[in-house]
Specification:
alpha+beta, SH3 type barrels, PX Domain, Substrate Binding Domain Of Dnak, Chain:A, Domain 2, five-stranded antiparallel beta sheet, 22 helices, 11 strands, disordered N terminus, SH3-like_dom_sf, phosphatidylinositol binding, SH3 domain, SH3_domain
Length: about 700
């Protein structure tokens, strides 16, 4: 379709709207892109020259003309090219690593430029007859609010959909070493508005928007055929649509109140039964059982649901990394939970395996709770593929699928004109303030909860000391950590008769009851309260988790204001509304899940406290009943039975083991980085003197 030619006024407008300068050093990103370009150039021409390669196929390739959209101050040490808005460029290679392109300016200088900082001018061709759509012709018409029509948003351009491959898919599947050092934070200096494809969608739309609309009928027909007989053909058709991002799972709907529409009912996922395995290729690793529980919908409200359907698969940590990588590429507009960090030292210890199991269960549970991520094809594949052969065959296909980018927003359907700019601006400011306050409050709650657990350990020590003191009084044996307090020899001989024995027996029972209460305090702090302490990570740092959503929302609002100013660009305003519907649906999802999370945390804590105190009451009441027994009953004059705790009087258990702490959250300010521990141990091993005079002496 022909489009309007760019006018000189457009360049002036672009120059006015400069992109804010970022001082973040993106050297690693640009170095990766430049290295990748040199490697490809070397492979083709055998030369490391910055000029075009000598290969006839490369040299004869037509350079596409482009124009800079924003000012960009490049860094020469990383071979970046500085441009100003409106400069004419030629694109040597469009797709390089980490969002860069190789371009050449009019002076013949070649360098790296962010892919979203320019647009191809070949798209703006002059046509003798320009046909404007009815939508753009009515730019001066007042838009009426509507909440009934649900339509896809996008500029429709009939172009063929060609999947884009951006480098080695396996390299993207695993976090890099520098990301582990920096706590999982990306070194890409571009905002989420850029990296998610929202900016490209707002500015230029999506090339496959036409195909999305056209493919709905094909997808519906394929769905009907899936119910019929030809299963193989249907599966092939569904896989083809999935590779193009046109399957049913790639269509997302937002209702009039800015909530995601749920396609699948919620279900539970448990991560359990970790076990250590050994492979000749990858060495030792821990594998976890992942069980999905699906409850059939009940037709009768009075009829309780039956036993759920269970599907159990076995996954290791690297499989979770693959899932997370594929999800972030296919759902760029969704605030996904962070994946637990990679562990480099002590990863087979019992405490760490249990902490990792809990973190992975919380991660996958938050994935299946999200109304959009729940039905992503890679999620259903991850939870349902039971065959190792099938897993190895299909994983490369999921990783090879191109990043959704702007096409994600082309598949978001929502009511027309349901966004008010003022309300959207106030909503994001309230949301930002709220998430920051919640994050600060939760961090304080986590610290206080740690002190509560320490107080329970102190109570355990106090109850145990009281028990030892009472037992020392009864047996006349001194307590090693307390002054000698006991009966004299004459009192011991007197107590050898009748009532004295009865009171001593009851005292021993009381001492043992206090020991049981001390054990309850200790176990409660180490297991029950530790689980609650770990669960608090699920509501920690919401501001960091939704930072990308907030940034995208604010940037889109700025574009929306520009597009709606005097009705200058209705199509861009429509695309902005799609992004705003997406971000506001994410905010609503957070509020809904926040209430569920805090309700579950409070319920879990109170249930644990009730169970703890009920067990303590059972033991204390049993000891209390011993003093209500009639002294005339037989058996009270029998010799006192020795207590199992008498042997501990010389060495009382008053120094408990350190209290286990929850594993740090990815976004914690100063987490304990496992990789730093590994580096310190490695350096220490090299510097530590060895009896054999070699660094390998440690292994002898």
């Amino acid at each position: 379709m022909s489009t309007l030619p760019r006018s000189p006024k457009s360049s002036r407008i672009i120059a006015k709207n400069k992109r804010p300068h970022s001082e973040f050093d993106a050297g690693i990103n640009s170095s990766t892109a430049w290295t990748e370009h040199l490697e490809q150039t070397t492979a083709n021409s055998g030369s490391l020259s910055d000029e075009e390669p000598d290969d006839p196929e490369e040299g004869d390739r037509e350079l596409r003309p482009a124009r800079a959209l924003y000012d960009f101050e490049g860094k020469t040490e990383f071979r970046e090219l500085s441009v100003e808005a409106g400069d004419e460029l030629e694109v040597v290679k469009e797709d390089l690593a980490d969002g860069w392109s190789l371009v050449k300016n009019v002076a013949g200088e070649v360098g790296l430029l962010p892919r979203t900082y320019y647009t191809f001018t070949s798209d703006f061709t002059t046509a003798p007859e320009v046909s404007l759509s009815s939508f753009s012709m009515q730019s001066n018409h007042q838009r009426d609010a509507s909440s009934s029509t649900i339509t896809p948003r996008g500029s429709l351009r009939p172009e063929e959909i060609v999947p884009q491959h951006t480098g080695d898919v396996w390299r993207a599947a695993f976090p890099s070493f520098r990301q582990s050092l920096l706590g999982g934070k990306s070194l890409n200096r571009f905002s989420t508005f850029v990296t998610s494809g929202a900016e490209e969608w707002v500015l230029k739309g999506s090339a496959d928007a036409d195909a999305v609309v056209a493919a709905q009928a094909a997808a519906a027909a394929a769905h009907q055929r899936m119910i019929s007989t030809e299963d193989d053909d249907d599966e092939e058709e569904r896989n083809r649509l999935s590779r193009l991002g046109l399957g049913e799972a790639d269509h997302h709907f937002v209702d009039a109140s800015h909530n995601w529409k749920t396609k699948l009912p919620p279900f539970r996922v448990l991560v359990h039964s970790p076990s250590k395995r050994t492979s000749t290729l990858s060495g030792s690793f821990t594998i976890y059982s992942v069980t999905s529980l699906f409850h059939a919908p009940s037709t009768d409200e009075a009829d309780p649901p039956g036993s759920p359907t269970r599907i159990t698969v076995h996954r290791r940590f690297s499989h979770f990394v693959i899932l997370h990588t594929a999800l972030t590429r296919r759902l760029p507009g969704i605030a996904l939970p962070p994946l637990p960090e990679k562990q480099y030292a002590g990863r087979f210890s019992e405490d760490f395996v249990e902490a990792r199991r809990g973190d992975l269960e919380r991660y996958i549970s938050r994935i299946v709770r999200h109304p959009v991520a729940r039905y992503a094809e890679v999620v259903t594949f991850f939870l349902g593929c039971e065959s190792d052969t099938e897993w190895k065959r299909l994983v490369p296909q999921h990783l090879a699928m191109p990043a959704a980018g702007p096409s994600f927003y082309a598949r978001v359907f929502h009511p027309d004109f349901n966004v008010d700019a003022d309300e959207a601006g106030e909503a994001v400011e309230r949301f930002d303030t709220h998430t920051r306050a919640v994050g600060k409050g939760v961090q304080g709650l986590r610290n206080i909860f740690g002190r509560v657990r320490e107080a329970r350990i102190e109570m355990s020590k106090a109850e145990r000391l009281l028990s030892y003191s009472l037992l020392s009084l009864i047996t006349s044996q001194p307590l090693a950590s307390a002054p000698v307090t006991g009966a004299s020899l004459e009192e011991e001989e007197y107590n050898a008769k009748g009532q004295g024995l009865a009171q001593r027996g009851r005292g021993v029972k009381t001492s043992e009851a206090l020991q049981s209460v001390a054990d309850l305090y200790d176990d409660h702090a180490r297991r029950t309260q530790l689980a609650t302490h770990e669960a608090l990570k699920g509501v920690a740092h919401p501001s960091s988790l939704y930072e990308g959503v907030i940034n995208t929302h604010r940037s889109t609002l700025s574009r929306y204001s520009q597009a709606t100013n005097n009705n200058t660009d209705e199509e861009m305003a429509a695309r902005c509304e799609t992004v705003l519907n997406t971000t506001m649906a994410e905010m609503e999802t957070y509020h809904t899940q926040k209430l569920e999370d805090f309700s579950a945390l409070a319920t879990e804590h109170l249930d644990g406290e009730i169970a703890f105190y009920e067990q303590a009451l059972v033991r204390l009441r049993a000891a209390r009943r011993g003093f209500e027994t009639d002294s005339s009953q037989p058996g009270l004059t029998q010799p006192r039975q020795a207590s199992i705790y008498e042997r501990e009087l010389e060495h009382p258990r008053l120094s408990p083991a350190p209290l286990p702490q929850p594993a740090p959250h990815v976004f914690d300010a100063a987490p304990m980085r496992p990789v730093s521990v590994a580096i310190q141990e490695g350096v220490g091993m090299l510097l530590r003197p060895s009896s054999r005079g070699s660094v390998f002496g440690k292994f002898w």
